[in-house]
Amino acid sequence: MTTTTANIRAFGRATQGCLLEALSLQALGRQVRRLVQGVLIPLIAIAIFLGLWHIGAKNVQTSLGQLPGPIQVWQQAGALYQEHRAERVKEAAFFERQEKRNAAKLAKNPDAKVKIRPYTGKPTFLDQIVTSLVTVAAGFVLASLIAIPIGIACGMSQTLYQAINPLIQVFKPVSPLAWLPLVTMVVSALYVTQDPAFDKSFVNSAITVTLCCLWPTIINTTVGVAGVSKDLLNVSQVLRLGWVTKTVKIVLPSAIPMIFTGLRLSLGIGWMVLIAAEMLAQNPGLGKFVWDEFQNGSSDSLARIMVAVVVIGLIGFLLDRGMLALQRQVSWDKNAVLR
Amino acid sequence: MQVNNSTPPVSAGRRFSRLAAGLTLALTLGLAAQAALAEVGPPEKEDLKFGFIKLTDMAPLAIAYEKQYFEDEGLYVTLEAQANWKVLLDGVIDGQLDGAHMLAGQPLAATIGFGTKAHIVTPFSMDLNGNGITVSNEVWQAMKPNVPKQEDGKPQHPIKADYLKPVVEKYKAEGKPFKMGMVFPVSTHNYELRYWLAAGGINPGYYAPERGDITGQIKADALLSVTPPPQMPATLEAGTIYGYCVGEPWNQQAVFKGIGVPVVTDYEIWKDNPEKVFGMTKEFTDKYPNTTARVVKALIRAAKWLDDNNDANRPEAVKILSQPNYVGADYEVIANSMTGTFEYEKGDKRALPDFNVFFRYNATYPYYSDAVWYLTQMRRWGQIAERKPDGWYMDTAKSVYRPDIYRKAAEELIADGKLKASDFPDFDKEKGFRPPQTEFIDGITFDGTKPNEYLEKFPIGLKGNDKV
């Protein structure tokens, strides 16, 4: 190889290198911009919000003391966690004492009946979060099991839709607080067993959640099913597919995005309804926590209620993102933009 | 065919096991006999749920739980706060709660049928005193000029309702009905508020249950209505009521928040009056006598702890009560009334060591005379529609208040060595009636053995054969 060729090659490689470098710099720039937009800007916005909250709260004096700012709320969050740990220690001590007492009883009389009973102390904030999640899950699953079949049926049959639609429209706007007394009375009358598996308050809250979050799922499922592309329906006619196969292979997959939109809306509404239902039904979850703190009227109450508000919001957000991830998994159109 | 009908010969092993069985049986019977000699056996029902309302005088329940006095008796208790007195009473009646912190009037009213009818009994009195009457800031400003002052310029106590009367007249003249709150139609607060108002010449209204009128506002100068205790400060602030009678911490809460002024405590209306009791259904006490006695044992120990060493344990008790699952109010608010003081006007804190009495002065003994007082007040305001003979008062008191169960529990505690006989009244001599009590704000003497005579002494109130 002559030196000229070698030089030209070297020059070419250098230019390539520079070009590549330039291109990757561009890519880097895009990465940085994405980072700034996606992470830094929201962080700055949150910081500004916290600052405004802190300053604004100082100026508001309620009868329970100064409105809590972000610092007090953070302190109370810590306090709630400490209380949880303290209660767990008490629980451990309780079980120890119970074991000792049972052992002593058995030592005196080997045939004596001994029982391991659950802890008699109060549910902590973290326990209440779990109770709320379980209740909303129960209500939501029940609602989905009712709403999706009805939605599919309505979507496939115009007559059925015309029949049920007025009922849906009338029941949709009813507030959970209006349903609750009726639900309580009916459950009291019908749910009578000596040793109930579920607390009445749990059943009341779950059913109220169901009654309020049925409707978005029904409506969206109906629309999704009714909106199946005509081409696909023609294909099913041509292939002479049976009713069941048509539903499972063509209608459902095509309607999944709308169904999931409905489910997401329902879950969001269900979570909001749950807090109100718990307050009235006294189900030991976050709603009851807020109500009890308000009734107690201690100087920490407002800050603790705010901790509950933040936690409720965060959980609602996570539930929504969870449903979104599920939707992405199940949806056949991977290119569809899902927010 | 030869059928062998005789029993097979008993082997040595068989004989020995029979002997052993016989000995064990004898031993068990002997032990059982000994157990029967002891007063209280093991509890029949170990898992119990008790209800309470968020007031500082639920303290004996909280202490009995936290200090493990219940567990010492083999009882596993869950304490559950109730939304209001009606829910609590219904809970006990329909069995969801095994027992509850109750107003002294509730077992009586339930047994005679005013409100839901059920035979409720009480073997334990939870405390004496503990209530206050608070009025709004405007009403206090209007009242204050009427109240005589001490040398240091502070209002002279006790403040009688005589000084409120001109204010009520003024409000009536302006067309504003003078509304006040209390916690329940058969609550101690209702009767104390009425007693205080009537002593000052203000008519608090009558009930006419036979006509279906249970608002208690017939012919009233001051209109009394029911509000749950935790909501009272808010209702006062909103201006819906101009004053209320309630237990702690709701009077001190009004002072702390600057929305009202407590003017008088029930200690000043009737010194050492019975306040709360621990109520259970008669069915429960009959079905589970050992459990009942053990519950009372634990509660007696808790009450003693609260008053021990001249109230030395009160700060610790306040710390427990300020937990959100018990009373939940701030430590300072609860301490204000439970540690020997009571704050009236903001800054006017006075020594009142007996504001809450849990064990002193035989506070835990369920005296029949206490029951009779409440029954007389029910008659005075028309909740009992017609005249009843003295014997009726005695019989009703005896069917609801159970000093016999108290005695069993107390004697067991003395036998256990946990308490001394000097801590209790002399059970052999005690008839269940306190000697005639004179320390009322209007000076009228109460003799529990003569209820109808007592009713005749009041200027305002039904007496004799009066009907509303």
Can you characterise this structure?
The complex is a heterodimer of chains A (339) and B (468). By secondary structure, chain A is mostly helical. Helices cover 80% and strands 1% of the residues of chain A. Chain A has a domain at 123-330: Orthogonal Bundle (MetI-like fold). Chain A has helices spanning 3-58, 70-108, 125-156, 158-171, 176-190, 200-226, 230-238, 243-281, 286-296, 301-330; strands spanning 61-62, 65-66. Chain A has a two-stranded antiparallel sheet with strand order 1-2. Chain B has 468 residues and is α/β, with parallel strands linked by helices. Chain B folds into two domains: 47-128 and 274-366 and 402-434, Periplasmic binding protein-like II (D-Maltodextrin-Binding Protein, domain 2, 3-Layer(aba) Sandwich); 131-269, 3-Layer(aba) Sandwich (D-Maltodextrin-Binding Protein, domain 2). Helix content of chain B is 41%, strand content 15%. Chain B has 19 helices and 14 strands. The longest helix of chain B has 26 residues, at 12-37. Residues 1-5 and 32-37 of chain B have low confidence and may be disordered. At the A-B interface, helix 2 and helix 9 of A face strand 2 of B.
Name its key features.
heterodimer, A: 339 residues, mainly alpha, MetI-like fold, two-stranded antiparallel sheet, B: 468 residues, alpha/beta, D-Maltodextrin-Binding Protein, domain 2, five-stranded mixed β-sheet, 14 strands, globular, disordered N terminus
